[in-house]
């Protein structure tokens, strides 16, 4: 009997771990790499969920000093140097958050960092995070000629997650059957 309870407990641990393996979350930033002084730039954050979605997610971007957030869709909460979105319920879906930044009158380059968080997981926002003064960017491109090939994109790991999840399920079932079979032999003795 104790072994049966242990087998069920082990199976539940594997299955709960499987829920996290099947529901990866990614937030990726897309924005222009250059801006002129005073120019407005649109930043997009692409939210992607594979598998079961969390009940809610908080997405936060840290805005460089001197830059101004002039709008966002959906509406965001603004604090000193950061902007946040709290999404829950029907709002948690594969979607795009966008916001507009106004560049300061003087800058050479700026870095935008961000993060996301749910009740059970957290991560950083991937993608482009730097913007340079357009004139400086033009000079850098001329200096870098001939133009090199673009960096390859990251592969889609969906099959890897699903394959890993299947292996974990089969392993949990195998362990449970082994323990149940072993406990059945012990009770017959």
Beta-strand residue percentage: 25-35%
User: Mean pLDDT, as a whole number?
Assistant: 81
Strand order of the largest sheet: 5-8-3-1-12
Helix proportion: 25-40%
Distance between the termini: 14 Å
User: In terms of structural class, how would the helical and strand content be classed?
Assistant: alpha+beta
* CATH architecture designation of the domain at 25-133: Sandwich
| Helix/strand order | HEEEEEEEEEEEEEHH
Based on the structure, what is the oligomeric state of the protein chains? Answer: single chain
Label the overall shape.
elongated
Name of the CATH first level of the domain at 25-133: Mainly Beta
User: Count of helical segments?
Assistant: 3
Measured on Cα atoms, how large is the radius of gyration?
24 Å
**How many DSSP E strands?**
13
Q: Characterize the biggest β-sheet.
A: 5 strands, mixed
List low-confidence stretches: 18-23
Looking at the structure, the CATH topology of the domain at 25-133 is Immunoglobulin-like
Give me some keywords for this one.
transmembrane helix; membrane; Immunoglobulin-like; 189 residues
Question: How do the strands and helices of this protein lay out in sequence?
Answer:
Elements: H1 2-22, E1 25-30, E2 34-35, E3 40-49, E4 56-62, E5 68-73, E6 77-79, E7 82-88, E8 95-102, E9 109-111, E10 113-117, E11 122-124, E12 126-127, E13 130-133, H2 134-143, H3 158-188
Parallel strand pairs: 1-12, 2-13
Antiparallel strand pairs: 1-3, 3-8, 4-7, 4-10, 5-8, 6-7, 9-13, 10-11
